[in-house]
Structures are given as structure tokens and as C-alpha cells.
Amino acid sequence: MTLGDLAAKKDAGEPIVMVTAYDHPGAQVAEVAGVDMVLVGDSAAMTVLGYDSTVSVTVDEMIMLTAAVRRGLSAPLLVGDLPFGSYEASDAVAVATAQRFVKEAGCDLVKLERGGTSVDRARAIVAAGIPVVGHVGLTPQTATALGGYRAQGRAADDALAVIDDALALQQAGCTLLVIEAVPAEVTAALVPLLDIPVIGIGAGADADGQVLVFHDLLGIYGGPAAKFVKRYADLRTAAIDGIRQYADEVRDRAYPAAEHTYAMAPGESARLQE
Ligand code: KIV
Ligand code: NA
């Protein structure tokens, strides 16, 4: 996949498929499944690191996870997610962080959240030669300021603010836009106004592509998920079942069986007994 391929898919009306991944086996299954793009989201904070929200994850943690994904990926484009506090303060800080994601983790693009000052940061990163993905609508890094994890743009004024942010990010040179948790009507109004592809998550069927969190779509954790999540597998149940069976077989001495056991070289066992 190249950036040109993404634009071509949008022009041809072919949906772009993106999924998150956070480690080497996750990258490999995404690759074999044939996705177009992989995002190492700062959702890693919750999905793999056990934090309460995305704000806690550090650049070093994200780089470690992203580099592992890079080693498992060849065809799909790799997007790194700039974590909270790693790009907002100045253009220089934003460029330095984005460069780490390229140099140390091999990202093809980096993603940042919000409009406002993030538009300037996006412009600076693009000027430094690194393709940028914008992220508007529900922006989890600043969810507290948005009134929590809830759909954005349900009122027309709020929807226009989301659309303004999206237009400003395109103007700043973003290659792609993620729009999260907005009514389908907002996405339908936005997409014709933009030249760049729009990847939706909880943003209806009118986006140019979709992204979901690996752990959400594969059912890797228990508990409730957001309204927009569809579970395509129940890996948590499968994993618990597998480990329970293993535990039972160890306790019953059914595992290991002969086929899991090494034998000594011929004749050596008899000598050992002597
Ligand atoms: O961190 C993440 O997983 C994301 C996607 C949900 C777009 O930003
Ligand atoms: Na994110």
C-alpha cells in the first residue's frame, strides 16, 4: 500500500480498511487478513497496558509497541499515534516526536488529535516530510473537555465545529482523517467537502473507510463496548477455555503426553538406570 493507493481507493469508491494492532502477532494477523492500514493506537493505554484512559501512555511505551508492529508488517501502511502531551506544546516538539515514530518505529504516517493548535502541529509535521492523519469528533485524549466519552456533533453547531476542524486539517496538509463517534449525517455532510479520505469509527457508513480497535472487534476483553463496536470473534472466551483445559490436564496428569516428551538416544536410558 502507498498513499497513492489510498487516494485511488477513495476515487474508485472502494472502502479503506484499517485496524489497530499493538504487537508482532497482532500485526501478522492484520497483514494476513489483508487490511490496508494498521494503526498502533494510543488505545494501547487501555487494550494492552491497563491504564484508565489514553492520557497516561508515554512516547517510549508507544514506540516500543509500534516498533514490534512494524516488524510484523510489510504490505499495509503503518500509522503511529502521537500520545497526549507529546506534540501539543510547540511545532518543534511535535516534529521531534513525529520523527521518533518514523526513525525508531518505522511509521509511514503519524496521527494527532483535534483541530485548534493541532492544525499548526499537523502543518509543521507535514512540512518536515512526514504524512499526517488528523482525528476529529470524539478525541479521547481530551474527552474530559468534551464532556466524556460520548458522541460529538449531535447539535448542528457542534457538527459544524467538527467539520471546520476537518477542513482545517486538510488545509494543513493531512493525508487522511479519522472521524470518531459522530452521527452518520455529520460524516455524510463532511465527506463531499474533503478531497482526502475519511476513515470512520462510530461515524456511520458514509466514510471512505472504517477503523476498529483490534481488541474490540475480536472480543479480547470482557465488559461493555461502545455502541459502534461489532464483535467478529470471542477470543477472550476461547483463551480462557484453552487455559482452563491446560490447567485441568496438568492437574489430571493428562498433559504432557508421550508425544510432547523427548526420549533419550537409543540404549542411553538403560545406561542411566545402572
Ligand atoms: O487509539 C486508537 O485506537 C484510535 C482509533 C480508535 C482511531 O485512535
Ligand atoms: Na488514538
From TrEMBL:
Q: Which PANTHER family match?
A: 3-METHYL-2-OXOBUTANOATE HYDROXYMETHYLTRANSFERASE
Q: Where does Mg(2+) bind?
A: D42, D81, E113
Q: What is its EC number?
A: 2.1.2.11
Q: Which organism is it from?
A: Microbacterium suwonense
Protein name per the record: 3-methyl-2-oxobutanoate hydroxymethyltransferase
Which residues are listed for 3-methyl-2-oxobutanoate binding in this entry?
D42, S43, D81, K111
- In which compartments does the protein localize? Cytoplasm
Pathway given for this chain reads: Cofactor biosynthesis; (R)-pantothenate biosynthesis; (R)-pantoate from 3-methyl-2-oxobutanoate: step 1/2
Which key words tag this protein in UniProt?
Answer: Cytoplasm, Magnesium, Metal-binding, Pantothenate biosynthesis, Transferase
**Which gene produces this protein?**
panB
* The keyword DNA-binding is annotated on this UniProt entry: no
Protein family according to the UniProt entry: Belongs to the PanB family.
- Name the CDD domains for this protein: KPHMT-like (cd06557)
UniProt cofactor note: Binds 1 Mg(2+) ion per subunit.
InterPro entries, sorted: Pantoate_hydroxy_MeTrfase, Pyrv/PenolPyrv_kinase-like_dom, Pyrv_kinase-like_dom_sf
Pfam entry (one): Pantoate_transf
Active site per UniProt? E180
* Main subcellular location of this protein, as a coarse class: cytoplasm
Functional summary from the UniProt entry: Catalyzes the reversible reaction in which hydroxymethyl group from 5,10-methylenetetrahydrofolate is transferred onto alpha-ketoisovalerate to form ketopantoate.
Keyword flag Cell membrane: no
